[in-house]
């Protein structure tokens, strides 16, 4: 959509994906505080919109003295309306200006909001200013709409897949809503004005039912922003957004794609931040309530009706009680307090009533809070929740009671003998069996032939078209973040196994850890948990699945500490502002002149508990606490029952089958248009074969094969013998268990029942082990044996024999077909049966999941192929009725307008009209599409084709430099008529590794500004330290231990500055891996030597005070030389590690934030820095104690408090603090980022932390050299030679300095 602007109005022009239908929304700008919208009910064509905008531009031009100014200007292009909001002045409109496609479900695209624009509607002449307006705008914009807000034009994200697909199975013939008078008038008018060239042919109109459903407003975040306009404008203008998470990954099962989608919907009721929103409000809405849905579908078939789709839903949310935590104490864990007594569990009843309506029964509560504590903290919640559930269950029927499972997960984790995930797996198995899951197709025949005990015990509601999930699992801990996410992952893993089994992908409903499938699913759930934790707690997850499996790397502990500190900082300092922004965005608080401002409220309790301000007229029953009518439909959810109350929420209309608003296939693929790969395939989703499967040869490609931890796609061992041994042990069966040795050490989470253990101990009879076929022992090698040997390298196994002559003949025919597809002889009669000869190649029965079924080509497809062959020979078949109907609808919807309705539109007369439109400037793309239709259906004569070719060549072409996307021609005729082959532009995809890379030119700029700053810093460092080195080298008197150490520090910093300069020069002049390794090693050596020299100076200062009497002995100088020798030796060793092979050039997945250093190398360097920093801190602390002790002794000896001594002591201590603080402030950010940063992070973070580290080498000469009186004296003598003195000179010790 596009927003146009005049002084009196805004005109918002919206269009569909094909740009064939347009609507216009008029917004008045003359009202200072009211919102006046005029929705034009007319549906415009593209030509009509152009004429309308032209008339508006002409009518709004200024008078004769200002001819140059336009009356209608284009304000902004957008993709949707978030809503309208007003504070103290006029209304604002919030538009989505940038989007990114995140997932695709059945052809329905799901987008993430990337950027928005907030535009003030009234013009400046009528604006009434208010001093507090700008502050409200800033608070409103604190809600970052570009962070995890999602929308879809055609899919209802607020409802689950089960709800959306069960709507399609209701009997709508009796519920068809009558056509509104306004719509009926518009349809009649468009029918009278339109011109249908097929109206006399008597072709029937195929009618289908189109549905329009109301969203579930609990998970809609802009419902209040659209509340004022939803009854005024057409529903096409309304676009509801959700907040939470959306991710999609591709699981490849021997090339068969399966999409796994994870959607999390955060509730907009009682929404807020961690410590400010706890428990529940008076309406039964709980804090941090998130509905998580995992959707698994066979991506080979996209349609909802013909494809296979499955989903499973679970919920997390705070404990439904009146409780909170006092954050005024600034404690990491504020005490929990119960705010209000609720003996009849009124608020819990309201909450579980909502869940029964949406999910049905059973409702299963998994309570993970602690039971045993030294101080009563979390236990308070369990002691209140359990009696509430008992009280509510006594009034429910036994079969619909709420199940309560309490388990102290934190205490169980601390035990070394217990496996947390094993216990969670048992709970998950029980939960999934009781609730079931949704699938839109009936069971496979193989499920009946090979029954599984677990599949037979599965719960849920079985329908004629599949299964329906009844009930839901509700998981909670105190924060509903870390423990809850791990528990939900285990339940989702169990449900995923059942979903894949139901889709026919595996032969047992069980998945093992350390498989590509589970690794992919675990990564998806970790992203899901990190996102939800950032939204509610202010940081990412602290404890992950690997933490509970006890296989997390040691670097994970430092990350956990940083996330804990980040969460504490966010809760203490920024949560209050975020809470105000959420309250204002959700319109929980609406500004008014008569109310106090938002920032003046002492609490927002009364905003979220509205019934506390009024006395309710009718009270709900404490015994019949559920909504009337729910129990009669249980266990099926009441919201999915086709009752009268639910049917009132739907609008059902009879529409044409070819209506673009319901034709998802045409909307997604656009077969009659020139489309691009960048638009159709714009989702860069995670791929199990690319991201997780090992990249070595001879590895089982099954995503259900258990792999060792070092056998992942990111780090693979190079031992070939171990790979071959692993290959012999692997099984290709989907649920084949691991060998006993692996099962003993792997942290699997399967059921502990005896039957399952028996199954695991034996190899499945249906598993097919891969065997390595060795060559024969013949001494002479023929050509066939050499081919067999070369085949082992890419495939991991040898061919059993050379292909037969018949197979080679089939391959030659196939290759000849590929070579001749563009130069088929028209005179030769082609028989399709002679081209392809397909035979079954599988020995498996057709019921087996491993079978390769012979392709069955239906008669329609064979006729279509023969028709294409005949068309290539110049013989056109007669069009059938379906083709005529499709062609009629396309021409009618896109190219027939009332303005030219008088002209004939038959195929024989279309060419002159099209040529005229071409000469008038019609877009080349549209002309190519029209000519494609004519050639496809009517095959114009050659002279007409040549004439259109010449016209197409005369059309202005788009410059080649502006074509950033690869054009795809949907039919070969469009390319023929375009005059020449369209250029194929292959766009370079950005690398995933955005880390800093030395000696490699950046792609974004000709010269990176960060590299310029690093080079300038290196120049300053080199100049400063070169002077210091020269002074110490040419001054014989500066040979004491202190100046030797200062010279070592200056030398190291000088080399570091030269390294930064050389890195800049080599980066933009010579790009080589060898130079990159040498440059990085040089910089590592110099900076390590610099930091180590600082440690040596600190040690020297300590010993000069601790052993002041023996400091000037020759032994001290020897110790200094040995210390420097060890310092430079270690620095040189660390710098040579990348050059000697410890780098990531051969394994980019192991790269760190500084390429080509590996993650282990950078972690070693950062850990060494922390050790040096802690040692320096301890030494400086001891130095301060010695200095203070000496000052006190001097004062006692002089029998009075010597004020100058104490002032000097205090000044010296402050100087040491400044020195140590400067060193820590320079290096600590980069060292911390080395531990927590990943190679996928933007390189700007690396630059921003590395640049302050170089400043330390710039400050070192000032602190340690230029402030020294001896070096100052030598500098003056070196520069001017005029400083003469006869005073005696003695070098001072560091203690005197």
From TrEMBL:
Residue ranges of domain SAC in the record: 140-538
GO molecular function: G protein-coupled receptor activity; phosphatidylinositol-3,5-bisphosphate 5-phosphatase activity
G-protein coupled receptors family 1 profile domain span: 1024-1264
Bias type Acidic residues, positions: 749-761
Keywords annotated in UniProt: G-protein coupled receptor, Glycoprotein, Hydrolase, Lipoprotein, Membrane, Palmitate, Receptor, Transducer, Transmembrane, Transmembrane helix
Tagged with keyword Glycoprotein: yes
One BP annotation, GO: phosphatidylinositol dephosphorylation
Pfam families, alphabetized: 7tm_1 (PF00001), Syja_N (PF02383)
Example of a GO cellular component annotation carried by this entry: membrane
PROSITE patterns, sorted: G_PROTEIN_RECEP_F1_1 (PS00237), G_PROTEIN_RECEP_F1_2 (PS50262), SAC (PS50275)
InterPro entries for the chain: Fig4-like, GPCR_Rhodpsn, GPCR_Rhodpsn_7TM, GPR_3/6/12_orphan, SAC_dom
Region (Disordered): 694-792
Gene3D superfamilies reported in the protein's UniProt record: Rhodopsin 7-helix transmembrane proteins
Family: Belongs to the G-protein coupled receptor 1 family.
Entry protein name: Polyphosphoinositide phosphatase
Organism: Champsocephalus esox (pike icefish)
Lineage of the species this protein comes from: Eukaryota, Metazoa, Chordata, Craniata, Vertebrata
